[in-house]
Amino acid sequence: MSDTRAAPTLVVGLGCQRGCPASTLRALLDQALQAHQIDLEAVQALASIDLKCDEPGLQELAAQLALPLLYFSSAELAVYQPRLSHHSQIAYERTGCYGVAESAALALAEQLMRAPAKLLISRQKFAQATLALAGAA
């Protein structure tokens, strides 16, 4: 009997400092997925805040992984504030939202699934970057 259910939608939200290299983002991604026993192939897309749309490290990572990279405005991300595991005052001062990685992961997961999402990996910080992973609630 074959399993015909669709694979779960898993998306990674990323935040980073200016000039953060793709190698740092990749190390954070690999470390988080390994710790939670999630295959990289399960990740369907990457997300961040639109302030980072010209960030070479994010673009390079998306290209390396052959994954779409979508951006959200701080206003689109702000609605997720009550659901964040961590509220960063520094992130708020710089971006207008309290957590880029978690908010972006939730926003993209809900956009792709057209259904509520939840954080499966809450905010992970590494060097100049943050990461979160969201999927079906």
What does the model show?
This protein is an alpha/beta fold. Helix 1 crosses helix 2. It contains five helices and five strands; from the N terminus they run βαβαβαααββ. It has a single domain (10-136), classed as 2-Layer Sandwich (Nucleotidyltransferase, domain 5), CATH 3.30.420.180. Residues 1-5 have low confidence and may be disordered. 39% of the residues are buried. It has helices at residues 22-35, 56-65, 74-78, 89-95, 100-113; strands spanning 10-16, 43-49, 69-72, 117-126, 129-136. The longest helix has 14 residues, at 22-35. Strands 3-2-1-5-4 form a five-stranded mixed β-sheet, with helices on both faces.
What's the SSE pattern? EHEHEHHHEE
Reading off the top of the CATH hierarchy, the class is best stated as Alpha Beta
- Give the tally of structural domains: 1
Q: Mean pLDDT, nearest integer? A: 93
So how many helices?
5
CATH fold node name = Nucleotidyltransferase, domain 5
Spatial order of the strands forming the largest sheet: 3-2-1-5-4
Number of strands: 5
For this structure, the quaternary state is: single chain
User: Which architecture would the CATH scheme give at its second level?
Assistant: 2-Layer Sandwich
Calculate Rg over CA atoms: 14 Å
What would you call the structural class? alpha/beta
Q: What gap, in angstroms, lies between the N and C termini? A: 26 Å
Residue runs with pLDDT of under 50 for 5 or more positions: 1-5
Major pleated sheet: 5 strands, mixed
Give the strand content: 25-35%
Q: What do we call the CATH homologous superfamily?
A: CobE/GbiG C-terminal domain
Q: Roughly how much helix do the residues carry, as a percent range?
A: 25-40%
Shape: globular
